[in-house]
Amino acid sequence: MAKTLFERIWESHVVHETPGEPALLYIDLHLIHEVTSPQAFEGLRLAGRTVRRPDLSIATMDHNVPTLPGPIEDPLARAQLEALRANCEEFGIPLCATGSGREGIVHVIGPELGLSQPGLTIVCGDSHTSTHGAFGALAFGIGTSEVEHVLATQTLPRPRPKTMRILYSGSLPLGVTPKDAILGTIGRIGVGGAVGHVVEYAGEPIRALSMEGRLTICNMSIEAGARAGMIAPDDTTFAYLEGRPATPSGAEWERALDRWRELSTDDDATFDTEIAIDVAELEPQVTWGTNPGMVGPVGGAVPDPAEIDDPDERAATERALAYMGLEPGIPLQEIRIDRVFIGSCTNARIDDLREAARVVDGQRVAPTVTAMVVPGSAKVKRQAEEEGLDRVFERAGFEWRNAGCSMCLGMNPDILAPGERCASTSNRNFEGRQGAGGRTHLVSPAMAAAAALAGHFVDVRETAAARA
Amino acid sequence: MKAFRSITARATVLDRPDVDTDQIIPKQFLKRIERTGYGEFLFYDWRQDPDFELNRPGCDGARILVTGPNFGCGSSREHAAWALQAYGFDVVIAPSFGDIFSTNAHHIGLLPLRLAPDEVKELMATIGGGGEVTVDLEAQAILDPVGRVLEFEVDPFIRHCLLDGRDTNGLTLRHEDAIAAFEARSPSPVSTAPL
Q: Residue B195 pLDDT more than 90?
């Protein structure tokens, strides 16, 4: 029978199935960070249980860490990071601690260590675990009770999700990035559009993307409500993985390739839901509201609630515009910004930093704007410095910081002041996400860089860098 | 975890779509390493507004929250479910939920309950500024403040676990032999040990 990529991975990981109960699914890789794990380790201790497979688990410090050098001043953050260190020691779990040179955002280091591989089941107590699906893995976010469950049993009981394919056609126009493609997709299907589904992204525009671009797409699956997002592996995937610390080598590598080449969706396989999107008409995207589905093309305007028929949608739009301090109908390019954040598990990989650096090279950040770049990992930071990107950013007036989640969610000191408006390459523009009262507009790295220079949103395709 | 059978309690309405977990429990409260004590931080930013729905008269002691579609979307923080439960809620009724939120809620004995969008709107109207609602998980039925009965669907396994208050870790550990056999048959192709 014809199968989807998802079905292949799911079926090969079922440990046990009882009719009327969820399947018990084996978990190949468990990624851990400081925020969602302490109560799980405590639960293990209280129940007298141990970690079944520390060799399939790895931890990093990312959500709370300051991005400026020096001690952690927040006592709660310090205690949480210390708890992670102590828990990893007690249970024998490898830890990429701050200062080890391997630290970074959990969804950046999994791929760069070569741990995120095709065909695996990957979980983490973080909703953006969908990122790792870019390798053709089944990767999804879980809560703390489930973190404890995986630590204890290396399995999870799971009801079978529905499947959705988003089939892209056309080719991405110059200056339109994977971030614009996924924002445009969420704008179309809505923030609840993929609830209950595992999404497979397919089509020529996906095949043409680098691994970094695919990671950005899969990362934001959760913003459409999807359980997971995935992309079938191909030569781009294999080339990215070859030679990384945790990928096989020699004869093992050849055997892995043989296995990975089997991981695709059959031509005649069917999905519960199919969506088709032509990317040729896509423009760079800017969110104007308080969820990622409240988005429009940079050439457009803030919507007018008076023109919305559905009363619930009208009320939600009115509330969003009130929070965002925006008048209906104003062009998106007239919105002035105070801050720029280039970072997060969505857009802080080396390709993202190169994309932004190309736009800012030889220019200056507008005097009214404070801009920062937070690389996704210590390794991305080192590589960017080897390429001289840090100097490009610093000469333009950007701050160049240490790796971490930083202002994507503002658990560390990097937050917006109330009322401040930020062009951000992160994934969520929820109320208060980057600091209570802060206003977030989600954009691509290139669009964030162009906004930093102009002091307001601009169409990056019309900037000097695009014309060069 | 807490067992759930049936409750009759005051219900309160939060008629907003896409209430995300950042609103339910803002990030500054996620630095705590305890599992308890989140109730006072529920909807922390929204509660600064005296007109916020939960600040209105008649909401005190509510144990049932009736809200819009896609409730609990966003972050995987189980703290959102902990905060709702610690504040006093036992049931959240909505047309749909974020997947991770639903799973988290099931694990702690907080019942996320789906009704059709028009049923939720009608229930909101009958509750108005306050009213008692019965949610009976055994009978899979809701009794609204004007005496109407609404039936609901719930996954039979989840219903069973909630009625019994069963720990799924304990359930899974019954399958320890199957897990060991799986590991022998298909060892995971990755290892973090050398890293």
A: no
Q: Select from B99, B157, B173 the Cβ nearest to the Cβ of A225.
A: B99
Look up the ipTM and state it. 0.96
Q: Is the Cβ of A85 closer than 8 Å to some Cβ of chain B? A: no
CB atoms < 10 A from the CB of A372, how many?
19
Residue by residue, DSSP assigns chain B as -----EEEEEEEEE--S--BHHHHS-GGGTT---SS--GGGTTTTGGGSTTSGGGSTT-TT--EEEE-TTBTBS---THHHHHHHHHT--EEEES-B-HHHHHHHHHHT-EEEE--HHHHHHHHHHHTT-EEEEEETTTTEEE-TTS-EEE----HHHHHHHHHT--HHHHHHTTHHHHHHHHHHS--S--STT-
Listed by number, the residues of chain B in 151-180 with a beta carbon closer than 8 Å to a beta carbon of chain A are 155-157, 168-169, 171-173, 175-176, 178-179
Residue A196 in contact with partner chain B when CB distance is under 8 A: yes
| Inter-chain touch A312–B81, beta carbons under 8 Å | no
Expressed in angstroms, the distance from the first to the final Cα of chain A is 52
* Side chain identity at residue A378, one-letter code: A
Topology, domain B6-167? Aconitase; domain 4 (3.20.19)
Which of A67-71, A249-253, A352-356, B170-174 has the lowest average pLDDT?
A: B170-174
pLDDT tens digit sequence for A62-78: 999 999 999 999 999 99
pLDDT for res A468: 62
State the best of B46, B47, B76 to mutate against chain A, taking most chain A CBs within 10 Å.
Answer: B76
- How far apart CA A356 and CA A374 sit, in angstroms, is 12
A311 to each of A177, A224, A305, A308, how far by Cα in Å? 34, 22, 9, 8
Token output for A62? 């990312």
User: Is the minimum CB–CB distance between A191 and chain B shorter than 8 Å?
Assistant: yes
**Residues of chain A with C-beta less than 8 angstroms from the C-beta of B23:** 430-432
> Domain boundaries in chain B?
6-167
Note whether B25 contacts A: Cβ–Cβ < 8 A: no
Shortest CA distance from A228: residue in chain B: B99
A16 at B interface, C-beta within 8 A: yes
Q: Distance (Å, rounded) from C-alpha A333 to C-alpha A324?
A: 15
Residue-wise pLDDT tens digits, A446-466: 999 999 999 999 999 998 776
Residues of B within 8 A of A244 (CB-CB) are: none
Q: Which residues on chain A are in Cβ contact (under 8 Å) with B69? A: 192
Q: What is the pLDDT of residues A110-128, one digit of tens each?
A: 999 999 999 999 999 999 9
| Interface contact A432-B45, CB threshold 8 A | yes
